[in-house]
Queue: 2 jobs
Job 1
Amino acid sequence: MSEKVFKKISVVGTSSESYEKAVEAAVAKASESVHGLAWFEVKEFRGGLGRDGSIEWQASVEVAFKVD
Amino acid sequence: MSEKVFKKISVVGTSSESYEKAVEAAVAKASESVHGLAWFEVKEFRGGLGRDGSIEWQASVEVAFKVD
Amino acid sequence: MSEKVFKKISVVGTSSESYEKAVEAAVAKASESVHGLAWFEVKEFRGGLGRDGSIEWQASVEVAFKVD
Amino acid sequence: MSEKVFKKISVVGTSSESYEKAVEAAVAKASESVHGLAWFEVKEFRGGLGRDGSIEWQASVEVAFKVD
Amino acid sequence: MSEKVFKKISVVGTSSESYEKAVEAAVAKASESVHGLAWFEVKEFRGGLGRDGSIEWQASVEVAFKVD
Amino acid sequence: MSEKVFKKISVVGTSSESYEKAVEAAVAKASESVHGLAWFEVKEFRGGLGRDGSIEWQASVEVAFKVD
Amino acid sequence: MSEKVFKKISVVGTSSESYEKAVEAAVAKASESVHGLAWFEVKEFRGGLGRDGSIEWQASVEVAFKVD
Amino acid sequence: MSEKVFKKISVVGTSSESYEKAVEAAVAKASESVHGLAWFEVKEFRGGLGRDGSIEWQASVEVAFKVD
Amino acid sequence: MSEKVFKKISVVGTSSESYEKAVEAAVAKASESVHGLAWFEVKEFRGGLGRDGSIEWQASVEVAFKVD
Amino acid sequence: MSEKVFKKISVVGTSSESYEKAVEAAVAKASESVHGLAWFEVKEFRGGLGRDGSIEWQASVEVAFKVD
Amino acid sequence: MSEKVFKKISVVGTSSESYEKAVEAAVAKASESVHGLAWFEVKEFRGGLGRDGSIEWQASVEVAFKVD
Amino acid sequence: MSEKVFKKISVVGTSSESYEKAVEAAVAKASESVHGLAWFEVKEFRGGLGRDGSIEWQASVEVAFKVD
């Protein structure tokens, strides 16, 4: 059979800059352990609030990659 | 009767830069075929992952416009 | 083949009276552009609040119609 | 700009055989009015039950197509 | 007992620039009336569309803060 | 900056007549403690059933108001 | 032990007048077969659309009743 | 009054062949105890996995029937 | 055919002690009227608050049982 | 008019013992600032994990109270 | 203690034939890397649409397996 | 960059005693294969029902841990 199959892993990325940077951090980390990254789905956006008013942007994503 | 009525169309915009740009692409395309754009609702954020590590930001939105 | 097919359009009706009137406004507007209306599904009830205490009832519905 | 944009339409297909046939009916009907079909998302599976015990398989899908 | 307790308030921030700015506006306003801000959860992203094509980014968040 | 910010409070209104009256009761109560009411979102419709067959219509809404 | 226990049954009421009448029809029917009705929860509002423009209001509710 | 009323019962059908067969098993069993079956809604698709690699297709459906 | 079929009933159990006791009360009551109990799914946890500060733990569960 | 109205506040309680204790902590804190507590709804159960293997049970609840 | 524990992995299977084949592809791939497969839950059904009108059935499932 | 990243794994714990014990079993098993456990989110509570009336409490959780 020639059906393609993908697996998805759940990753939470964080950034002090933006949600896009938080997603990029998550994807970059995922790429260290798996190959064939194909797409991702944002599951939740949250954020941490520091005493100094700083914001930590948090992106919870599911990253899909092709398995051979 | 003077009730206002709106219709919503479902559009998916993409961008290589950010989710805001992806939304703007969706809204810009919607504005080509309908008038009276009023608001939009984000339904999903996803993304495509290229072999070179690039990210395509994808925003699925419902765009509402007033109908006469 | 003889399978029936329906399409659904998303419409937001408003009324100063009730949710039923808001739905009716949405359905009436839908009937101007498509034929064969079959059913609708309420997706959300909201409302606008005027400075004078008035309420604008807002009904977001998906209206289904048969396509030939 | 070179961002791709897609639109999604909501279609309900039916079949006396299976959910796959119901989806195919929906997609076939969508292809009559729009071009560039790209993917679809199943939103709901339901069914009608006849007096004679027959089943009408009903698939509610959102069909996405590329807009130029 | 030494259990920590948090309360959450629901705030909608807006910005003409980005969702991050809209969230920051919401958090900044929350910080005017409560102390001990700890985290926030994004509940919805929407947007307003002006006649001139401008976009008002709207972020609905729940902001949590520690209560003594 | 001139970003607008809104807060939302959660209110449950009841009525022996209809859901619209239940919503109005909730909005009226909200207006006693906050100003600048802007919109509301219906979160749930329930009802209480009396021994005498009477129905208490219950509307759970989130009421948004502008904060300065 | 004296814990109270309730059961819930799922009923769909219809009316040519309003959602409240549709709910009342559902509750009235439920009261014919069970006693101790306590509350109900609205699960979905839909509607049927006749060829003559008439609307059949449909309310899907879960009706709870106390069991001894 | 002439309002129609339906009840819904929750049934889980299983099959070693397909989801359609699993739904049919659920509907067939429902038809043994109630009359006037009208429609069903699929709530969940799951499956059991045997040690020998076999799959048991499981369909959780709500079956609606008309009550007099 | 040898497909297994299950039915699910919706039960709300209460307890002055814990959610586990509330679930047990629901299951115990279900076992009085049906046989072949197989599993349950928690749908919602709520609670009643007495004037004296007491808590009534309320568990809404769907109890599945095998039908022959 | 004599319609009852309730407000709901969102509280997150924590405990090193159980979810029930976490809920009780949330309710106890709510009772310090408002009167007429009537019921609560569990929105989410989470937990914090310490380096020493300890668990902090976290219950996010909406607490409703009657307003005069 | 003798409590059983399961892990779940997220897999997307595809097939040119049916959803059942797509699920089987996902399960078969999962069985290559883990043992003790016990059940799966369908999370989403989607599909890819080829230029030639072909459909790629896509099933997103969570596959659970027992861990020792 | 110094962004923190977390991964989440999906685990189902069981216990004959309580949901807390079921969660603890899931967390304990997770801690055998990964380090840096940070938090968990309860996704579902279910239960198995034995012929002797016994209950197996089942907790489906997502356990997050920090990755370096």
Job 2
Amino acid sequence: MVLKYSAMKYSPVLVVQLILMVLFFIFVRYGDEKEAHVRGFEGTHVMIFVGFGFLMTFLKKYCYSALGFNWLLAALVIQWALLCQSFFTMKDNTIYITKKSLLEADIMSATVLITFGALLGVATGLQLLFIAIVETVIACLNLWLVTDVFKAADVGGSIAIHTFGAYFGLGVSMALRFRREDTTTPMNNGNPAPVVDLNGASYTSDVTAMIGSIFLWIYWPSFNSGLTNSDAEYQRAVINTYLSLAAATVTAFVMSSAVNKHPGRFDMVHIQNSTLAGGVAVGSVCNMHIGAGGAMAIGIGSGLLSVIGYRYLTPRLTKIGILDTCGVNNLHGMPGVFSGLLSVLFAGLASAQDYGTELSNVFEAVGPDGRSAGSQALYQFIALAVTIGLSLVGGFVTGLLSKMPVFGSLKDAERYDDQINWELP
Amino acid sequence: MVLKYSAMKYSPVLVVQLILMVLFFIFVRYGDEKEAHVRGFEGTHVMIFVGFGFLMTFLKKYCYSALGFNWLLAALVIQWALLCQSFFTMKDNTIYITKKSLLEADIMSATVLITFGALLGVATGLQLLFIAIVETVIACLNLWLVTDVFKAADVGGSIAIHTFGAYFGLGVSMALRFRREDTTTPMNNGNPAPVVDLNGASYTSDVTAMIGSIFLWIYWPSFNSGLTNSDAEYQRAVINTYLSLAAATVTAFVMSSAVNKHPGRFDMVHIQNSTLAGGVAVGSVCNMHIGAGGAMAIGIGSGLLSVIGYRYLTPRLTKIGILDTCGVNNLHGMPGVFSGLLSVLFAGLASAQDYGTELSNVFEAVGPDGRSAGSQALYQFIALAVTIGLSLVGGFVTGLLSKMPVFGSLKDAERYDDQINWELP
Amino acid sequence: MVLKYSAMKYSPVLVVQLILMVLFFIFVRYGDEKEAHVRGFEGTHVMIFVGFGFLMTFLKKYCYSALGFNWLLAALVIQWALLCQSFFTMKDNTIYITKKSLLEADIMSATVLITFGALLGVATGLQLLFIAIVETVIACLNLWLVTDVFKAADVGGSIAIHTFGAYFGLGVSMALRFRREDTTTPMNNGNPAPVVDLNGASYTSDVTAMIGSIFLWIYWPSFNSGLTNSDAEYQRAVINTYLSLAAATVTAFVMSSAVNKHPGRFDMVHIQNSTLAGGVAVGSVCNMHIGAGGAMAIGIGSGLLSVIGYRYLTPRLTKIGILDTCGVNNLHGMPGVFSGLLSVLFAGLASAQDYGTELSNVFEAVGPDGRSAGSQALYQFIALAVTIGLSLVGGFVTGLLSKMPVFGSLKDAERYDDQINWELP
């Protein structure tokens, strides 16, 4: 904690930045210009920096930190991910980057930002930066397992990005919970602290959070379809994501009004988040032949699941000390697992009759000389299981490491408060 | 009103969502991937969800409802419109949807959101949802008449979308006005109610409304040009819309300062809205050979018309009980009619000499074996007249139906207030 | 000052708008549809109207003016620039405009908005409009010198747009400073005025400013790459801008925390602005073979330079009376000069070996029958020097002219205050 208000506090981050620069000088070259035509980059870029950033401004006195750390973490992670995500596939010790690599780096940074959502307001800047750097490595390893080893279909990243990011975050949160006992020293001479609860929204902060939420919603079809290969696959991914999101939105509103403590009224937490669950739930299967009605069914299911999670599950997790400030388990975790299970189902149902020549676009390992549909379904399941395991364990261990004194820690009264990190007006 | 705070209040909406899903399972299939290259979808998507949503946050205590209902209505209408807009042209009982269909559904939802603008803060959620579902049917019928029956040119939808949406809204408003007499029962034991007037902006809400306004302005060229066929037509639509908007913006500022109660000062209502009138007024003719100077003249005219409308017409309509909270008559209604009349003029002036081989791109029924320019002008006029008639009558009847007790209604003191619909911080 | 609250105050602006319309009727025709495929227009459009507009809402009581004048100035300048930027290259007295022309007009308007940033809150509306109209002429002349006469490479406009806009603004500011002595007449009968300092942010205004900042950041790769010619050049520009911005962002955070008055805390001024310096600094060279590591080194350098400028240079300039409200010298000026100097370096290093057939795409005058690399480097330097000279002198003279009584002026107590220009809620 000696470093808390030191001018040198963030100097290790500059060292990391300089190391990244040197590594880029050594290993990175411009790649093939054919990939300059990749779709979905601009929209995904908006999601990462405006979408995630503003969605997390819902806390009334943590808006600067939400926007600032979102930006700082993503700016660091996109650089680091450009290296990590190519580590296993580089040739001649050279990484060739293209516009498509930038899209992939953006997508990878979403993983870290989802984890940040679970920890919003309860970790120091240095803790967040440390977690981000470690998580990127493990998430890139997991992505390589899912995509290149298991050859699982996961075009929208619901397994490798959303599920991973959410359970990594919960893993960290589990590790951090033990810390709470350190801070039971009573403040105010043992009297109950007159704590103003900053873990909540103001009227204005809920409105700015909607900027993030709606931009995420708008560009989700771009996100899910960005890495498709053919026009048909691309269009299916766009249509399915669009329909799933629309159905999830209607469902989230209805459910919010139904389960709210004051029935008949909507809760902004649900509206800002559960509306988006349709994008996650359809992610792994959006390029498959799930049908327009199927996409809507998935959206409806995810809207239900997500609102129920916010209403009944999150309070219970909080009670046992597993904090999840943004409720990423309800937006990314459970809908991500749902999407993974759907990918098992739709992989098992895939046939050359439905997909025609597109079969190997969607499932690269399936074909006359490759896997059967049933076998692909099994690999989908393995990919999901490995992701959950690796993210929970990785997150837990990373969380334990982030408790090293060098990274500092927040007292209860310092949580959800910009005061710690910012010069305020 | 018994349902006002019931957990089941919005359950009929979930039933509607489930019916939509079933209809999609039965009737909808993925369409031709050639339409995956449609232009303008992403921009239009931003306009619908961010543009309309945030523009309506100008009311100081209705921001949640503005954003929430905008989202809910649009999410429902885009699904419903995908069916309705294809009803007259489906083959073998199957609707093939493409990315272009999504763009058309987004455009159709604008109609409903314009109507919502007229009713902002004065209708219940269930009333709005009912109106949206009915309006979509009538608006799709009208669109089919305008486009397929009359074969009118209306590429930016100023007739079938803007004019229709605005006068449908005024029609509903006329029907709702009779309700006001129900609520004359004095509150507070007959003493004048200490009503805080919520029908106005705060400093912050005017700033968030500008998010919507500017995003609408930015992507209007995408909106107007989205459904063009050739590069030349597309580029003309973009240029004309860009210039008309720029000229309308300069004009709106000057006029706002001129007619304001405190001359020399700008009024945010004009700036947020009349700047956009240039996009509406050029909509029906933006792909025609109107000339760059012509586009600017249209913009100047619409800026004038719109500010004058806000300053002098809306207060008079309010006085006779026709509420129009956002002044959609000044932004969409009168500029839409203006655009329709311009389309009569420019259709009448169209010649193969100016348009060359593009003539049938812009006016599909005009040509050596088809209509004359004069005849096309007449059809443009018919399309406009039918749109105005159908929207006013349709809106009025729908408004009367929306007064059924099952949808609830708002007392005067409940207007413009998020309290009714939301859990507030 | 008699015109201050007159209904006719802005009527000359309408006259300007009408003259523009007439000029467009006479001189402007639709151009070749091949340029309908230009890249980067939509993103740049977002930067100009949302990016610049919201970035300048950081002042707590000048949000309406920031958004309003940004919009009004840009809407006027894009029309005027469409004429001015083609003045030297028009054929047969006709200007053919395309979607690419719109992009170029948007880019030119950035110049004026940068200048506006220097003057934010200290000039009247009429002063700003006058300055904008004059500046557009001089900036288009300078752009023609840089691009067509010196044939300097400046694809992202860091010389002709950023450097020019910043030093034009400082030139105006130098001219305006003499005015301060006019207002030393004490208010309040000689007692010190109980001035509330409006030259600062509120919690909310800092959050809305981040909307602008992040959108500028997101679309900067589109801005810098919009006018590239080939896919390879385009992709290089996108990658280099992306990496430079990421590195500048990390650096800006670290430096902000290091040099802040309260060390260890971030300052929103730095975060909102210095994060963007990476986009400016890489602008003139982003399509060159600078290498991914080189792009990051440039970003790191610009982040350092910009934060240091905000922390130590701006207060000194303010002390000697050169106001620069947004600190455009630190975001556009010094990083722009840095970029210009880098273009001297990389032009000097350019070889057919590195660039292959692309050499003439990037440096149009270099080649076997043209200039040598060293000669091109010299022209890059001349372009930079002429830009600095012309902008400072042009700005200073324009600033002197803007002090004519007809444009009005602001007293000290009227600065940074929407009250003067707006009907407030």
